[in-house]
Structure formats: C-alpha cells, structure tokens
Amino acid sequence: MNKSELVEALSLEKDLTYKRAEEIVNLIFDSMTEELIQGGRIEIRGFGSFVVKDYKAYTGRNPKTGETIEVKDKKLPFFKVGKELRERVDS
C-alpha cells in the first residue's frame, strides 16, 4: 500500500472527501517526521515504534572502483515492529 492508497482507504472508510483524507494523512506524517527530526521517539501500541539511530563515521569502499571513501556520521530512522503486529503477520 502506498500513500495514495492509504488516503483512498481512509476516504472510503470514514466517508471523507479525498482532499480531506489527504490532509489528515499528511498531518500525521508531518507530525511524525517533525518528532523524529527533534530526536523524539514514536510508539504506536500494537504496531511498532520509530526511533532515529546515530551511525558513526567510518571508512568504506566503493564496490565499483575499490577506492576507499570516508562515510560521514549520519542519522537514519529505524522501525521496530510491535509484538501484536508481528504475531498477526506471522499467523
């Protein structure tokens, strides 16, 4: 499912216009993004949690040329699946 399919499903399920459903989905995603940017954690019980992990700089290698390169520090979002979702998908 992609974002537009999610908007469509919300629109049909809750009898909303597509535009209103899109605003709601965007509000949720924007709020989640802002929380992660600020270093926060998002937990949705039964679904999972989102956190930002810090990765230190390291010396890597370009697989095409074999040349060594310096990879800078970075922060990446990470999702950890919740127990309920894991069990529902597994069954």
- Helical content band: 40-55%
Shape: elongated
For the record, give the distance between the C-alpha atoms at the N and C termini, rounded to a whole number: 20 Å
Query: What is the highest CATH level, the class of the largest domain?
Result: Few Secondary Structures
How confident is the prediction overall: mean pLDDT?
96
Low-confidence stretches: none
CATH fold topology of the largest domain:
HU Protein, Chain A
Strand content: 25-35%
**How many distinct beta strands?**
5
CATH superfamily of the largest domain: IHF-like DNA-binding proteins
- For the record, the CATH architecture of the largest domain stands as Irregular
* Rg, alpha carbons: 19 Å
> In terms of structural class, how would the helical and strand content be classed?
alpha+beta
Describe this structure in words.
- With 91 residues, this protein is of the alpha+beta class.
- The chain has two domains: 1-38; 43-91, IHF-like DNA-binding proteins (HU Protein, Chain A, Irregular).
- It contains three helices and five strands.
- It has helices at 3-13, 18-37, 83-90, and strands at residues 42-44, 48-55, 58-61, 68-71, 74-81.
- The strands form two sheets. Strands 1-2-5 form a three-stranded antiparallel β-sheet. It has a two-stranded antiparallel sheet with strand order 3-4.
- A hairpin with a 3-residue loop joins β1 and β2 (48-55).
- α1 packs across α2.
- It is elongated, with a radius of gyration of 19 Å.
- The mean pLDDT is 96.
